[in-house]
Amino acid sequence: MGNAHGHRKHHNGANNPGSSAFKYGQFDQAVHAPSSTNPNMESSLSFPYAHVDASLRALAGQAEGFGRCAIGGLHGSVYHVTTLADDGPGSLREGCRKKEPLWIVFEVSGIITLSSYLNVSSYKTIDGRGQRIKLSGKGLRLKECEHVIICNLEFEGGRGPDVDGIQIKPNSKHIWIDRCSLSDYEDGLIDITRESTDITISRCHFSRHDKTMLIGADPSHIADRCIRVTIHHCFFDGTRQRHPRVRFGKVHLYNNYTRNWGIYAVCASVESQIYSECNIYEAGQKKVAFKYLTEKAADQEVGRTGCIRSQGDLFVTGTQAGLMHEHGEHSLFHPSEHYPRWTVRPPTDELKRFLQHCTGWQSVTRPADHALSV
């Protein structure tokens, strides 16, 4: 499904969907994905992950980008959540605290009100397909864990100081967050800090929120230079800022739709490297998409900002990119240095419509648990 980029260079054409920047890859492959709000709506657009609903564990190891190695609970048994209670037998919390690999599914739909952060241990898949589960009150915490997949959940109404929808810190890696809806938390919707890395966030819908996504803790945490995150095919729907805000890390953004931000779309701060590829930026009252903040790393004498390279992005409704070229884009990473394939399309109106309907929680049937060899 992915488009092979290898080490080929992209050419100029950042604002022109018909330019040579879009001639790479197999764009003639058609994927038909019904909309959750309009089942009769189909798109001829190439879209990643068309095959992952074929069987229960087909998600494992299929993320595009930096989180591509995440296998979740592939090699564990299936754990069935049978109650909406915060804790106790059959609860989500009980499954997440178990040390062995588990593929967690739900036999109930409804709201799970968390009284405290729900800590997720390593080698877990939290798979919301087949039901409609909303987490509220607090959020998920991925602390010193690896190989976690979170799929098809809703997060809404988290309250309390420093309460994020999904908090990834410290020292967590190989994480994939896919097809989730997140809104209205006290702090962030997703925070990735304290040396957490190799993470993909895909097909998520972010709405009704201020500080959407933080990557990199603060200028004193210089070990966050290891952070690597891919964010693709997400819909940032009128959220105010941080789509994302990045310190130190390397971040690849592609085929996202960000509209009507309140301060900025994307912010690059101390030493960050952001590769923005074929995204759609649609301004409301605030016209500038990219913002730069200068901060001084704890081991440096002078402050620095970050770098953003825009390749094939579409800026509409009077949006001003706000690019700063004097930072020296030649030193910014290219995704092909880290992974050979990703599915990217020109930023057209068709892509915009697709992301409006096919991101976030979806009413999809839970697949059967067929044997899967990896």
Automatic annotation (TrEMBL):
Keyword Metal-binding set for record: yes
Pfam families reported in the protein's UniProt record: Pectate_lyase_4
Main location: secreted
SUPFAM superfamilies xref list: Pectin lyase-like
Gene3D superfamilies attached to this UniProt entry: Single-stranded right-handed beta-helix, Pectin lyase-like (2.160.20.10)
GO molecular function: metal ion binding; pectate lyase activity
Catalysed conversion reaction: Eliminative cleavage of (1->4)-alpha-D-galacturonan to give oligosaccharides with 4-deoxy-alpha-D-galact-4-enuronosyl groups at their non-reducing ends
Cofactors (names): Ca(2+)
Signal peptide region: none
Pectate lyase domain span: 74-287
Keywords noted in UniProt: Calcium, Cell wall, Lyase, Metal-binding, Secreted, Signal
Compartments, record wording: Secreted, Cell wall
Pathway as given in its UniProt record: Glycan metabolism; pectin degradation; 2-dehydro-3-deoxy-D-gluconate from pectin: step 2/5
Family note: Belongs to the polysaccharide lyase 1 family.
Name of the protein in question: Pectate lyase
Organism: Rhamnella rubrinervis
